[in-house]
Amino acid sequence: MTEYDDAIRLETGDDPARRTGTFSEDWMIGNAVNGGFVMATGLSALGQHLATDPAEQTPHSDPVVMSAYFMTAAAPGPFTVTTDIMRCGRMLSTGQISLSQVGPGGAPVERMRAIASFGNLEHVDTLKQSTPPDLPPPEQCVSAEQAPPEFLANMRFLERLDLRLDPATAGWALGKPSMQGAIRGWLRVKDREPDTTLLMMALDALPPVAFDLGILGWTPTLEFTGHIRRRPAPGWLRVSLSSENVGGGMMEEDASIWDSTGALVAQSRQLCGVRLASGRNG
Amino acid sequence: MTEYDDAIRLETGDDPARRTGTFSEDWMIGNAVNGGFVMATGLSALGQHLATDPAEQTPHSDPVVMSAYFMTAAAPGPFTVTTDIMRCGRMLSTGQISLSQVGPGGAPVERMRAIASFGNLEHVDTLKQSTPPDLPPPEQCVSAEQAPPEFLANMRFLERLDLRLDPATAGWALGKPSMQGAIRGWLRVKDREPDTTLLMMALDALPPVAFDLGILGWTPTLEFTGHIRRRPAPGWLRVSLSSENVGGGMMEEDASIWDSTGALVAQSRQLCGVRLASGRNG
């Protein structure tokens, strides 16, 4: 079992709507478990619930769309996911996800609530798609391994990935952001080929696009919506981030992912808070 | 009271989490109540619930983000909205919305489930924003009133709006779509200046961008997420739609809105089903 598959593993008992697991410190970024990994975990719970639901007549094994709202930062340790199936349709099955952890006072504290739909992306025709970005080959890109060790100490999530940034959009790491609001690069999860659930994590795996605008403080995700459009081919993913609008203490971050064949496989938009001090969503 | 304010009016009783209202045929598009109007109605219910909640210490009167999942098409007639406040924070307050109508068998049928956050957009600084599109003046654009009467008969929602499309992106109405995947135009709601709740409806008020790709069948909204970034100035809104990726029976529709001062006030991305026959989400 790969590190990712082991980390995302869920236990289930008598209640088909309830699953439990444990977040590892290995998937932390800064002081919290990576939000993309939290989303993939919640999505996995809904997928497992759907797979066992008698109303689910068409197998819908691929996440197609997820909207997640983050209320408090997830910490290493045990968590519970409850899921609620809203509708099983011909094309999509839709449900709700709530992921919580026991807070300091012993009461459950909700980390993330989400709605998501599953479908079947086995055979996908393409009528029109955006062009993947031109990137230098991975070996000519900037690897996270080249970052200072004191930076990486706080970013254990990055050790799970092989991430190679286009040098044209990595100037912020040397104090020279391009100010274009763009970060692009190659991405793989170590020892694991991508699938549609992993893509939801990959949409939120790069450094925040805010860095390329000279905004180096924390930009917590307030809301994240990802669309998975196709099962990815094995190999490197190309990820492109951009942001057009920054103001009022908020910014959007748009992400697109193409697989190794050049097919657009996923896209997302998230609303982030923009601030310099730490603390999450008020 | 304007037509819009009358239509979106909600009644409330002893239960602070439950509101009722009636959808009018005036807000229908095709065989359903306009999805944007359904969203604005649900959002309005959550805003009213938050305004009366004792945990809400900072007034958060502006919707900031909403993710809506449409399960069945809303019909004219009575509806119920239930809301659940998830978290009242310093910057944002977040809750869930479920809008339902009584189905043919007498049981409630959920039309839309959504999560949304409210904040305060009274004073918004702008660090970076996308440029509004260049449009010919409204009087040189194509008005919905120029459409054939038999087309308008099924589109009563359009009578509530003053919509003027850029002739460069209105060729589809004459059977000549540009195939660029773009529709742009001016928008006002008749007799009503825009506010942040109305913007959520305005994000989904133009004809589907699919028309400009020669896709004239129904493109039901499966999921819609809108970000409201600033309170709009009075006057015309400029709305721009685009789509880059069509395949696997789905497409995304991105929308941006600028107010009469040229400020970016809202943006959205929705995932639509692409099909030729009618019927909603399986």
Commentary on this structure:
The structure is a homodimer of 282-residue chains. The first copy, chain A, has 282 residues and is mainly beta. Chain A is 12% helix and 38% strand. Chain A has 4 helices and 17 strands. Chain A has helices spanning 3-7, 35-51, 149-152, 196-202; strands at 11-12, 18-23, 28-29, 32-33, 62-70, 77-88, 93-102, 108-119, 126-128, 142-143, 161-165, 182-189, 221-228, 237-242, 246-247, 250-258, 264-273. In chain A, the strands form 2 sheets. In chain A, strands 1, 2, 5, 6, 7, 8, 10, 11, 12, 13, 14, 15, 16 and 17 form a 14-stranded antiparallel sheet that branches. A two-stranded antiparallel sheet of chain A has the order 3-4. In chain A, strand 3 (28-29) and strand 4 form a beta hairpin. The longest helix of chain A is centred in the N-terminal third of the chain and has 17 residues, at 35-51. Chain A starts with a helix and ends in a 9-residue tail after the last strand. Chains A and B meet through strand 5, strand 8, strand 9, strand 13 and strand 15 of A and strand 5, strand 8, strand 9, strand 13 and strand 15 of B.
